[in-house]
Amino acid sequence: MAIPLLAYSPSCPNQRVDALGARDDEAIIYSTDDLFTPAEIDNLINAAYRQIFFHAFKWDREIVLESQLRNRQITVRDFIRGLLLSNTFIDSFYNKNSNYRFVEHCVQKVLGRKVYSNAEKIAWSAVVMTKGVKGFIEDLLNSEEYIENFGENTVPYQRRRILPSRVLGETPFNITTPRYDAYYRDKLGFPQGIWQEAVRTFRSYDKQPRTGDPSLFLKMAETINPRAGKPSFTSTSNIDIEKSVPYRGR
C-alpha cells in the first residue's frame, strides 16, 4: 500500500537562494526549446548522460531513446525518465546501494541539489519501499520542484553551484557522492592505489653525458658476467708414470 510523501522541513542551501545575475550561476543550460541543429541535440544528449550516469560508455547508451528525442517523439523529461529506469542506472546505483543512498543520488541528479536532511531521505526512501523504483522516479519527475526548475525540455543540472559572494562554489555531486557507499566500496576493495608510471628523474642538458662518456657504457658493462677459469686438477693416482715419462734410448 502506497503512503503519501512524509512531511519534512526544507533547509535553505544555495539552490533556494535567488540568482543575483541573469543566469543560474552561469551554468550551461541545455534545452530543446532553443536547440535545432543535430550537433546541438548531440550536446544535449551527452549532457543528459553526464548528469545521470556521469559517464556513458558505448554499451550504456540508450539508442532508441536518443532516436526518439532527436525526432521529437519524446521530451527531455521522458528521456531522463528512460535513463533513470535503464538497466545501467538500476544496476549501478540501485542494486549496489541502500535506499537512502539511492535517494541521495536521485535527488542530486534529478532535482539538481543535495538532500535537505535525513528526514527528506527517510521520506523518499518510504516512497521507494512502497511504490518501487519506478514509482519513486515518477514522483520525482512529476514533483513541483522539478517542473518549476526544468520543465519538459531542460536537462537537469546542479543548481546554485556557484555564488557571486563566494570565491569557491560547491563541489560537483559526482565527487562528493561516490557511486558506491562505504559498504560496497569495502566489498569491492576500493580505494586501491595504482602506480601507473615509472619514476623518472630530470637532468639538465649541460649535465647529460656526452659521446664517449663511460657512464653510457655502464648498462652494457653490468650485463657482462665474467667468470674466472677453474684450474685443472689431476690426482697422482691417475697418472701413468711409465707412459708419461718419455723413453730415452741408449
TrEMBL record:
Q: Which GO terms describe its biological process?
A: photosynthesis
Q: Which InterPro entries match?
A: PBS_linker_dom, PBS_linker_sf, Phycobilisome
Q: What is this protein called?
A: Phycobilisome rod-core linker polypeptide
PBS-linker domain residues: 10-187
Superkingdom of this entry's organism?
Bacteria
Q: Which GO terms describe its cellular component?
A: endomembrane system; phycobilisome
Location in the cell:
Endomembrane system
Q: Where is this region: Disordered?
A: 228-250
Keyword check for Iron, yes or no. Answer: no
* Source species taxonomy: Bacteria, Bacillati, Cyanobacteriota, Cyanophyceae, Nostocales
**Keywords in UniProt for this one?**
Antenna complex, Membrane, Photosynthesis, Phycobilisome, Thylakoid
Q: Which family does it belong to?
A: Belongs to the phycobilisome linker protein family.
- Keyword Thylakoid in record: yes
